[in-house]
Design goal:
Keywords: Membrane, Transmembrane, Transmembrane helix. This protein is mostly helical and 266 residues long. It has 11 helices and 2 strands. Helix 1 crosses helix 5 and helix 4 packs parallel to helix 6.
């Protein structure tokens, strides 16, 4: 495990070398969050109400801020792009000679990047925008603690989804458009743009049962106290089941991909 910790630490430190990029990324995150909040302010102003379908404007502002935090610390396109570059350069074949797991290396690498983005982008952005717009506290101590657990689950699920999509590149021989496809699914079905409270039926019911919902919607819903205690534990268990399913898929695809490398390489 010390080797994977070293990979995570190296990933963290390598990104610190580009300090000007830190300010550019913070500015970019601020623009995204301001735009997302402005959309909901305009939407509520358009209907002339501060509560729509039982959801207040302040709850939606908090939801928008949290959505940026949950999604902002993980970059699916970076994970898929890393797999695509390793495949194109042939570096991925080297992992067959090492007593290490390539999927675990990717996870360690993303953990280091996650820590970097959390410290340099997400926390400063949320702190600034929360002071500017105001942000609701967790509905309860339990909801606050479970939000952290759901956030960790969200990170794990998002990594596994990205790795799964990235490994498909071994059959396509390119990762082109794979990150776009996953990004499009996340934008629509994670609840990042529009919470499922405002989805029409039966689309809302379908979206709540897709794995993408655990990336943004459920962590935010837990934070705001939109789920009962029983539902929180139920959906956390379902999220773990989705994570286990995606983990099995990643390991299976990697075994198949390893076989392709061996056969094609002779």
């Amino acid at each position: 495990m010390s080797a994977y910790f070293a990979f995570a630490r190296s990933s963290f430190h390598s990104q610190l070398a580009y300090r000007n990029e830190v300010w550019a990324n913070i500015f970019g995150k601020l623009v995204q969050v301001f735009a997302r909040v402005a959309i909901w302010q305009a939407a509520y102003a358009g209907v002339g109400a501060i509560v729509v379908d039982g959801v207040s404007l302040q709850e939606m502002v908090t939801y928008a801020l949290l959505g940026g935090a949950v999604m902002g610390a993980t970059r699916p396109e970076r994970i898929i792009g890393e797999i695509g570059r390793s495949l194109k350069t042939g570096d991925v074949a080297v992992w067959l000679l090492k007593p290490l797991s390539y999927p675990l290396y990717l996870f360690a690498n993303e953990c280091g990047s996650f820590g970097y983005r959390l410290m340099t982008q997400v926390i400063p952005t949320i702190a600034f925008t929360a002071l500017f717009y105001g942000m609701l506290p967790p509905a309860s101590l339990f909801d606050g603690l479970m939000f952290i657990a759901f956030w960790a689950l969200s990170f794990t699920l998002l990594f596994l989804m990205s790795a799964l999509f990235g490994l498909v590149a071994f059959w396509l021989m390119t990762s082109f458009s794979l990150d776009w496809i996953l990004g499009a699914l996340l934008q629509l079905f994670s609840g990042l743009l529009i919470p499922f409270w405002f989805f029409p039926e039966p689309l809302a019911t379908i979206a709540r049962h897709l794995p993408f919902a655990w990336v943004v919607y459920y962590p935010n819903a837990v934070y705001l106290g939109r789920l009962s205690t029983v539902d929180v534990w139920l959906h956390f268990g379902l999220g773990l089941a989705w994570a286990a399913l995606f983990l099995a898929g990643v390991l299976w695809l990697w075994r198949r991909a390893s076989g392709r490398i061996t056969v094609q390489g002779g």
